[in-house]
Write a structure and sequence with these properties.
alpha+beta; two-stranded antiparallel ribbon; 10 helices; 50% helix; elongated
Length: 250
């Protein structure tokens, strides 16, 4: 067997359990071929579980180390990595948790995994130079309604319907453990990074609508029109600038 064929067969065994390579593994009285192959198969799965524990520490804390290893071990077996970077692995875990668990915990853990995935994405996103609010000083009044904004690549928007953020604070910020998972009204959250710190805050209904419209490319005139007062639009815009969210105007 050529080297490329051997590598392909080995990968097929590790990822999919195919046994063709077993015929090319030298066995002895102490270590059969299945044991020798199992070392690599088990190590591959264990390393991916460790990777996901690094990405989803709050999910691990909420589930417990043993249940997390079992649940995520099943996920790894069903969803082997197809990425060159381990950091890109795990986007399907929230849906896996929602489908594999029951009751409020299923929604809560799925929301928590999505929140942690957003935190990781915000941290790893590309840098961009944030603009200051003073950059608008030269904009003429007649130009404001058509003004559009480009946002930081670190920005993440999330909708959740559980108290998952309280569980995240318990696991990652040293706050008290919530007594139970709890369904809530739909909550809107904004996450972003400044320098090396990831920030998050809950959005009001008005800011949710305005921000989502601005992210969709709507002009200042379009997204501020539904607001009750022009001062509200100005305050929101100032807050986005102060948070380093705006990187482009035009």
């Amino acid at each position: 067997m050529k080297l490329a064929q051997l590598q392909s067969a080995f990968q097929a065994h590790v990822l999919h359990g195919e046994e063709a390579i077993a015929h090319d593994i030298v066995a002895d009285a102490r270590r059969p071929a299945s044991m020798r192959l199992g070392v690599y198969t088990d190590a591959y799965g264990a390393r991916l579980v460790e990777v996901l524990a690094e990405t989803f520490p709050a999910v691990q804390a909420a589930l417990g180390t043993g249940p997390f290893a079992r649940q995520v071990g099943d996920f790894v077996r069903r969803h082997p990595s197809r990425f060159r970077s381990a950091r890109d692995y795990g986007a399907q875990l929230p849906a896996w948790l929602a489908a594999g668990l029951t009751g409020p915990r299923a929604q809560g853990l799925s929301d928590l995994a999505r929140f942690e995935w957003a935190v990781a994405g915000a941290f790893d996103a590309a840098d961009a130079v944030a603009l200051k609010a003073e950059s608008l000083a030269g904009v003429e009044p007649a130009e404001w309604p058509q003004l559009r904004f480009g946002f930081s690549p670190t920005l993440r928007r999330l909708s959740v319907s559980s108290n998952c953020v309280a569980w995240w604070k318990f696991a990652c910020a040293g706050q008290p453990r919530p007594p139970r998972w709890r369904s809530t009204c739909l909550q809107q959250w904004l996450l972003w990074r400044q320098d090396l710190a990831v920030f998050y805050r809950r959005l009001s209904r008005a800011e949710t609508a305005a921000l989502d419209a601005a992210l969709a490319g709507h002009s200042f005139g379009q997204w501020c029109e539904p607001l009750s007062h022009p001062a509200a639009a100005a305050a929101m815009l100032r807050g986005w600038f102060d948070a380093g969210l705006i990187v482009r105007t035009g």
